[in-house]
Amino acid sequence: MRNTRARRPQPAIREEKAGATARGQVAQRRKPHAAGDEWVSSKAALGKPGGTRGKPAPQAGGKPGTKPAEGEYAAAPVARKAPVTRAKKLAVRAGSQKEVAKQKQLREKRLTPDQIGEERLQKALAFSGWGSRREVETWIAEGKVTVNGKVAELGCKVKPGDDVRVGSKRVQLRWADRLPRVLLYHKQEGELVTRDDPQGRVTVFDRLPKLASSKWIAIGRLDFNTSGLLVFTTSGELANRMTHPRFEIEREYAVRVLGELTDEQIAQLKRGIELDDGPARFERIDASGGEGANHWYNVVLKEGRNREVRRMFEHFELTVSRLMRVRFGMFGLPPRLKRGQFYELNETETLAVMKWADLKLNGEAKA
User: Per residue in 290-315, pLDDT tens?
Assistant: First the structure.
C-alpha cells in the first residue's frame, strides 16, 4: 500500500548556512603588550547579501543582461558588503545628581538665531543632509539654488529665517545651535577609515551609531593595519583644530618592532630624519620593554602623515609589527575601552573640549 503521509519539509536555510560558514572568517587579534597582552577573538557577522539572485547585472549602455555597445565597457563589479555588527557602547556609571542636572541643562541649551549668525550656503545645505559640499557647490554653480527668491552664488551666506530652495523645493535648514557630539572609538586592525570602499571591506563608519541630523567626522586617520584611538565629532571646526598642522596637536603611539634601536638612532629620530615627503621627527621616544627580538617603544609626534611612524622605523630597516595609537591631543584611550567599542563624551566633558579648543558652545570658531 502506498504511503500517503506527507514528507517532512527540509530546512531551506541549510545550504545558505553551509555557504555562510565557509565565508565566515575568524580573526584572532592580540592586544599590544602595553595594554595587557590579552588575546581577543572576533567573528565576522554572517548574513545573506542583498540583491536579486539569478539576474544578470546591468551593463554599461544598455538594459540588464544586454551586451554593451561597440566602444563601451561593462561597468566594474562592486563588491557586496556583508552585514556589519555595530560597535558596543562602553558602559559607565552615572555621575552625581549635580553632574546629571548640569548635563541635562547643557543638552537642552540652544543658541538664539542672533548667536548662530550667518553660515555659508553650501555648508548649511550639507549640514542639513542635502548632499556633500561638492554636490551642493555644483548645484549652486548650475543656478539650481535660490535664497529669498534670488539665484544663489558660491560663497553667499544664509541665516535662520531665509527662504532657501533647491529647484522648486523649499529646504528646512538645520543649524548647529547646540553642543556637538564627540565620540572615542577603539579601532581594530582590518578596518578602514573611509565612508565607502569599492572592495566591500569593513569601515569604521559601519561600526558607529547612526546620526539622524548630522554625520560623524573622523579627526585624523589610522591605516588598515593600525589599531587604537580614533576620535569622531559632529563639529567640522573641532576636527580642523585637531588636525591642522599649525595647531601641532600631539599623537602618541605604542610601537612594537622586530629589532632594537641604538642610542644613536634614537637621537637621530629626535633630531629629525629625511623621508620621501620631507623631514620627520619624534618629539619623544621611550623604550618600554619587550621579549626576544620584539621591542616596544612609545613615540610622540605632532603631525599625521601617511604611514609616518612606520616609515620612520623603516628608515633604519626595522619592521613595525604592531602599531597602536594611545593618545590624540587631550584624548587618551580609556583603559576599559575594548577593541571595537566606543565611548561618547557626556555634555560636561564635551564642553571642556570646546573650551580647550577655544571654540563656541556649538563648535564654531570664535570671532
Answer: 888 999 999 999 998 999 999 999 99
Please tell me the distance from the alpha carbon of residue 322 to that of residue 61, in angstroms, as a whole number: 47
DSSP 115: H
State yes or no: is 263 an active-site residue: no
Burial label for 214, CB within 10 Å (0-12, 13-18, 19+), is middle
Domain that holds residue 132: 113-170
**Of the listed 223, 277, 286, 358, which one is catalytic?**
223
Does residue 338 sit in the same domain as residue 309? yes
Tell me the residue type at 273: I
- Contact indicator for 300, 252 with CB cutoff of 8 Å: yes
Q: pTM for the complete prediction?
A: 0.71
**C-alpha pair distances (Å), 184 with each of 35, 327, 328, 346:** 17, 11, 10, 11
Question: What is the full DSSP assignment across 151-207?
Answer: E--TT-EE-TT--EEETTEEP------S---EEEEEEPTT-BSSS--TT---BHHHH
Predicted pLDDT of residue 367: 64
- At 77 the pLDDT is 62
Q: Can you tell me the distance from the alpha carbon of 107 to that of 71, in angstroms, rounded to the nearest whole number?
A: 58
Q: Do 159 and 291 sit in the same domain of this protein?
A: no
Q: What is the pLDDT of residue 131?
A: 77
- For residue 224 the three cell numbers come to 588598515
Let me know if 131 is exposed, middle or buried by CB neighbors in 10 A (0-12, 13-18, 19+): middle
**Nine-digit cell string for 53:** 539572485
Residues 6+ away with beta carbon under 8 Å from 244: none
Last residue of a domain, one of 141, 170, 199: 170
**Distance (Å, whole) CA 360 – CA 125:** 21
160 and 273 share a domain?
Answer: no
How far is the CA of 268 from the CAs of 250, 277, 281, 312, 315, in angstroms? 19, 17, 8, 10, 11
Q: How far apart are CA 232 and CA 238, in angstroms?
A: 10
Q: What are the residue ranges in the chain where pLDDT is below 50?
A: 1-66, 72
